[in-house]
Design goal:
globular; binds zinc ion; four-stranded mixed β-sheet; mainly beta
Length: 62
Amino acid sequence: MVEARCMKCKAPKQMKHAEIVMTARGGYMGKGKCPDCGTTMCAMMSKDNAEKAIKAGAKKAY
Ligand SMILES: [Zn+2]
């Protein structure tokens, strides 16, 4: 799944409802919610990591 730092909890978390999107520059980004406080989280990802996250259950949104 997709890990990102929650700005509110100030800790890395596995994001809930993770979606993988493509950025304007052709990069990949994971978007989701913090499982503990619900804050929106996002993480820049490599293509490899994006594909792994999708295989692990993240939604492909590009
Ligand atoms: Zn949080």
